[in-house]
Amino acid sequence: MNRIVFLARVLWASPNTLLGLVIGGVGMCFGGRARICGRAIEFYGGGTKWFVQRLPHGQFTLALTLGHTILGQTEASLDISRKHETVHILQYERWGPFLLPAYFLSSLYMWLIGRRFYRDNPFEREAYDADGGEHNL
Predict the structure, then answer these.
(1) What is the per-residue burial (b if ≥16 Cβ within 10 Å, else e) of 73-112?
(2) Helical packing angle, 3-29 and 46-53, nearest 10°
(3) What does each C-alpha distance from 119 to 5, 37, 69, 93, 96 come to in angstroms?
(4) pLDDT tens-place string over residues 52-85
(5) Is 72 helix (H, G, I), strand (E, B) or coil?
(6) How confident is the model over 101-112, as pLDDT tens digits?
(7) DSSP letter (8 states) at residue 55
(8) Where are the domains of the chain?
(9) pLDDT value at position 33?
(10) Residue 69 and residue 66: Cα distance in Å, rounded?
Protein backbone atom coordinates (compact mmCIF):
# COMPACT_ATOMS: atom_id res chain seq x y z
CA MET A 1 0.00 0.00 0.00
CA ASN A 2 1.22 3.48 -0.80
CA ARG A 3 2.74 5.09 2.31
CA ILE A 4 0.72 8.28 1.88
CA VAL A 5 -2.53 6.31 1.64
CA PHE A 6 -1.56 4.24 4.68
CA LEU A 7 -0.70 7.39 6.67
CA ALA A 8 -4.02 8.95 5.67
CA ARG A 9 -5.88 5.85 6.91
CA VAL A 10 -3.97 5.87 10.20
CA LEU A 11 -4.75 9.57 10.70
CA TRP A 12 -8.43 9.05 9.77
CA ALA A 13 -8.69 6.34 12.45
CA SER A 14 -6.57 8.26 14.99
CA PRO A 15 -9.35 9.73 17.20
CA ASN A 16 -10.46 6.19 18.03
CA THR A 17 -6.86 5.01 18.30
CA LEU A 18 -6.23 7.74 20.86
CA LEU A 19 -9.17 6.48 22.94
CA GLY A 20 -7.72 2.95 22.78
CA LEU A 21 -4.27 4.21 23.76
CA VAL A 22 -5.70 5.98 26.81
CA ILE A 23 -7.66 2.91 27.94
CA GLY A 24 -4.71 0.61 27.23
CA GLY A 25 -2.27 2.97 28.95
CA VAL A 26 -4.41 3.10 32.07
CA GLY A 27 -4.72 -0.69 31.88
CA MET A 28 -0.93 -0.95 31.88
CA CYS A 29 -0.80 1.13 35.08
CA PHE A 30 -2.80 -1.70 36.67
CA GLY A 31 -0.72 -4.65 35.51
CA GLY A 32 -1.62 -4.79 31.83
CA ARG A 33 0.81 -5.48 29.01
CA ALA A 34 1.19 -4.24 25.44
CA ARG A 35 2.68 -5.47 22.19
CA ILE A 36 2.72 -4.40 18.57
CA CYS A 37 1.31 -6.94 16.14
CA GLY A 38 0.81 -6.10 12.49
CA ARG A 39 -0.88 -2.73 12.17
CA ALA A 40 -2.18 -2.71 15.77
CA ILE A 41 -1.02 -1.97 19.27
CA GLU A 42 -2.50 -4.70 21.44
CA PHE A 43 -3.17 -4.30 25.16
CA TYR A 44 -4.14 -7.17 27.44
CA GLY A 45 -4.36 -8.29 31.04
CA GLY A 46 -4.47 -6.17 34.18
CA GLY A 47 -6.67 -3.09 33.91
CA THR A 48 -7.35 -3.75 30.23
CA LYS A 49 -8.87 -7.13 31.04
CA TRP A 50 -10.91 -5.49 33.81
CA PHE A 51 -12.23 -2.90 31.31
CA VAL A 52 -13.17 -5.47 28.65
CA GLN A 53 -14.97 -7.66 31.20
CA ARG A 54 -17.20 -4.74 32.19
CA LEU A 55 -18.52 -4.15 28.69
CA PRO A 56 -21.98 -5.50 27.82
CA HIS A 57 -21.44 -9.26 27.45
CA GLY A 58 -17.85 -8.54 28.51
CA GLN A 59 -17.37 -11.90 30.17
CA PHE A 60 -17.76 -13.41 26.67
CA THR A 61 -15.77 -10.72 24.81
CA LEU A 62 -12.25 -11.70 23.81
CA ALA A 63 -11.21 -8.31 22.45
CA LEU A 64 -12.37 -4.86 21.37
CA THR A 65 -10.86 -2.70 18.63
CA LEU A 66 -10.56 1.08 18.81
CA GLY A 67 -8.81 2.46 15.74
CA HIS A 68 -5.39 0.81 15.56
CA THR A 69 -5.55 -0.52 19.12
CA ILE A 70 -6.97 -3.84 20.26
CA LEU A 71 -7.94 -4.29 23.89
CA GLY A 72 -7.99 -7.96 24.88
CA GLN A 73 -8.60 -9.94 28.01
CA THR A 74 -5.47 -12.08 27.62
CA GLU A 75 -2.62 -12.62 25.20
CA ALA A 76 -4.35 -15.81 24.04
CA SER A 77 -7.66 -14.00 23.45
CA LEU A 78 -5.82 -11.56 21.17
CA ASP A 79 -4.30 -14.45 19.22
CA ILE A 80 -7.71 -16.11 18.82
CA SER A 81 -9.54 -12.96 17.75
CA ARG A 82 -6.84 -11.25 15.66
CA LYS A 83 -8.39 -11.95 12.24
CA HIS A 84 -11.78 -10.69 13.42
CA GLU A 85 -10.31 -7.59 15.06
CA THR A 86 -8.17 -6.83 11.99
CA VAL A 87 -11.40 -6.48 10.00
CA HIS A 88 -12.50 -3.84 12.52
CA ILE A 89 -9.18 -2.01 12.02
CA LEU A 90 -9.93 -1.87 8.29
CA GLN A 91 -13.43 -0.58 9.11
CA TYR A 92 -11.89 2.19 11.22
CA GLU A 93 -9.62 3.05 8.30
CA ARG A 94 -12.72 3.43 6.08
CA TRP A 95 -15.09 5.11 8.54
CA GLY A 96 -12.62 7.02 10.71
CA PRO A 97 -14.21 9.01 13.54
CA PHE A 98 -17.69 8.05 12.30
CA LEU A 99 -17.27 4.34 13.00
CA LEU A 100 -18.32 4.37 16.66
CA PRO A 101 -21.52 6.38 16.05
CA ALA A 102 -22.34 4.25 12.98
CA TYR A 103 -21.66 1.06 14.95
CA PHE A 104 -23.92 2.09 17.83
CA LEU A 105 -26.68 3.31 15.50
CA SER A 106 -26.50 0.00 13.62
CA SER A 107 -26.82 -1.90 16.89
CA LEU A 108 -29.76 0.26 17.95
CA TYR A 109 -31.47 -0.30 14.61
CA MET A 110 -30.96 -4.07 14.85
CA TRP A 111 -32.45 -4.07 18.35
CA LEU A 112 -35.42 -1.91 17.30
CA ILE A 113 -36.34 -4.27 14.47
CA GLY A 114 -36.09 -7.31 16.75
CA ARG A 115 -32.71 -8.58 15.62
CA ARG A 116 -29.63 -9.27 17.73
CA PHE A 117 -27.95 -5.93 18.46
CA TYR A 118 -24.44 -7.39 18.38
CA ARG A 119 -24.40 -10.43 16.08
CA ASP A 120 -26.62 -8.85 13.41
CA ASN A 121 -24.75 -5.55 13.37
CA PRO A 122 -23.33 -5.21 9.82
CA PHE A 123 -19.88 -4.30 11.18
CA GLU A 124 -19.80 -7.54 13.19
CA ARG A 125 -21.24 -9.57 10.32
CA GLU A 126 -18.37 -8.39 8.11
CA ALA A 127 -15.81 -9.34 10.75
CA TYR A 128 -17.37 -12.75 11.44
CA ASP A 129 -17.69 -13.47 7.73
CA ALA A 130 -13.99 -12.71 7.28
CA ASP A 131 -12.79 -14.93 10.11
CA GLY A 132 -15.44 -17.63 9.81
CA GLY A 133 -15.55 -17.79 13.59
CA GLU A 134 -18.08 -17.76 16.36
CA HIS A 135 -15.70 -16.85 19.18
CA ASN A 136 -17.77 -13.94 20.57
CA LEU A 137 -21.46 -13.94 21.45
Answers:
(1) bbeebbebbbebbbbbbbbbbebbeebeeebeebbeebee
(2) 90
(3) 31, 26, 22, 21, 22
(4) 999 988 889 999 999 999 999 999 999 999 999 9
(5) strand
(6) 999 999 999 999
(7) S
(8) 3-96
(9) 98
(10) 5
